């Protein structure tokens, strides 16, 4: 049986103004997996993430980490936050230190790590996020993309078991989006559990091992990407678009231009492999896409 690292069990949450944000929401995240959480604005994705990090406490139900229900005393919360890090969509809501180095050092220092370990973690996080040339720069003078990368380095320096990214590629240029996606894969290869929310169905389909869809504060569906995105009725009910790869694949299938035993492709490369070499015009056209 797969090991769950973090779980929401019948979680309810109502904001002070009476707004119901989460309603009987249950979700089990398997350790070491790449998880995408989809849903429209206001569906409850960020509220759920704040529960995973104990920023919010459920009004009903509970959160488990490592199989144990979260206890909301100070010691347990500190331990949880050292193991579950969140990179927020808006970096300005996360950054507060005067310089980049101070910002990235804050978490490891608060964890009580030795100075050499702090410096090693900060250096590695800055290299991984391409912020190693920004060390002495004031955070408030950085561009949006630089702030985004520093906010990611913030969390990487703490080396948590679970890293949650809220819209990690939003407002980034294509090069930085590719870099961030590569970083997510790198973290996964290191055994981290990586969770992201995104409106980019192409990213979710090609990247994730497993997908949860939230609608109206509860999980409306879950499954492997190829199952979620081939269910047209489900996508319509949850206001989700189909990834371009599936649309192209289905169109090519209808015209008899793909190999009969080819499974649904998850990337452009896999899609090209489904097209016989004899269909060279189609292959040439697809190589230009994306």
Care to describe what's here?
- It is a single chain.
- The protein has 290 residues and is of the alpha/beta class.
- The protein has two domains: 4-237, P-loop containing nucleotide triphosphate hydrolases (Rossmann fold, 3-Layer(aba) Sandwich), CATH 3.40.50.300; 244-286, no CATH class.
- The protein is 39% helix and 21% strand.
- The chain contains twelve helices and ten strands.
- The chain has helices at residues 45-52, 74-83, 100-110, 115-128, 144-156, 174-189, 201-207, 225-228, 232-237, 244-254, 268-273, 280-286; strands at 4-14, 20-30, 34-38, 60-65, 68-69, 84-87, 162-166, 193-197, 210-215, 218-223.
- It has a six-stranded mixed β-sheet with strand order 6-7-8-3-9-10, with helices on both faces. A four-stranded antiparallel β-sheet has the order 2-1-4-5, covered by helices on one side.
- Helix 6 links the parallel strand 7 and strand 8 (193-197).
- Helix 3 crosses helix 4 (115-128), helix 3 (100-110) packs parallel to helix 5 and helix 4 (115-128) crosses helix 5 (144-156).
- The longest helix has 16 residues, at 174-189.
- The two termini are 38 Å apart.
Q: Largest beta sheet, briefly?
A: 6 strands, mixed
Mean residue pLDDT: 90
Content of β-strand: 15-25%
What's the tally of helices? 12
Q: Which architecture of the largest domain would the CATH scheme give at its second level? A: 3-Layer(aba) Sandwich
Question: Low-confidence parts lasting 5 or more residues at pLDDT below 50?
Answer: none
Per the CATH scheme, the topology name of the largest domain is: Rossmann fold
Cα shape: globular
């Amino acid at each position: 049986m797969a090991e769950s690292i973090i779980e929401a069990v019948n979680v309810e949450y109502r904001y002070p103004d009476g707004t119901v944000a989460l309603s009987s929401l249950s979700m089990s995240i398997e350790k070491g997996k790449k998880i995408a959480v989809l849903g429209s604005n206001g569906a409850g994705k960020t509220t759920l993430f704040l529960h995973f990090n104990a920023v919010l406490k459920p009004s009903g139900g509970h959160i488990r980490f490592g199989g144990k229900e979260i206890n909301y005393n100070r010691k347990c919360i500190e331990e949880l936050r050292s193991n579950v890090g969140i990179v927020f969509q808006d970096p300005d809501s996360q950054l507060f230190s005067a310089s980049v180095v101070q910002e990235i050092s804050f978490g490891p220092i608060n964890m009580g790590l030795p100075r050499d370990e702090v410096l090693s973690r900060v250096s590695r996080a800055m290299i991984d996020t391409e912020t190693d040339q920004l060390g002495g720069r004031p955070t408030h003078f950085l561009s949006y993309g630089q702030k985004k990368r520093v906010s990611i380095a913030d969390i990487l320096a703490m080396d948590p078991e679970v890293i949650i990214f809220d819209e990690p590629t939003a407002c980034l240029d294509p090069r930085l989006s590719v870099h961030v996606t590569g970083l997510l894969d790198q973290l996964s290869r290191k055994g981290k559990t990586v969770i992201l929310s995104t409106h980019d169905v192409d990213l979710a389909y090609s990247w994730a091992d497993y997908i949860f869809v939230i609608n109206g504060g509860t999980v409306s569906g879950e499954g492997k990407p190829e199952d979620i995105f081939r269910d047209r009725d489900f996508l319509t009910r949850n206001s989700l678009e189909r990834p371009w790869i599936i649309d192209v694949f289905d169109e090519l299938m209808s015209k008899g231009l793909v190999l009969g035993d080819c499974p649904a492709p998850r990337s452009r490369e896999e899609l090209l492999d489904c097209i016989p070499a004899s269909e060279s015009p189609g292959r040439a056209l697809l190589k230009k896409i994306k």
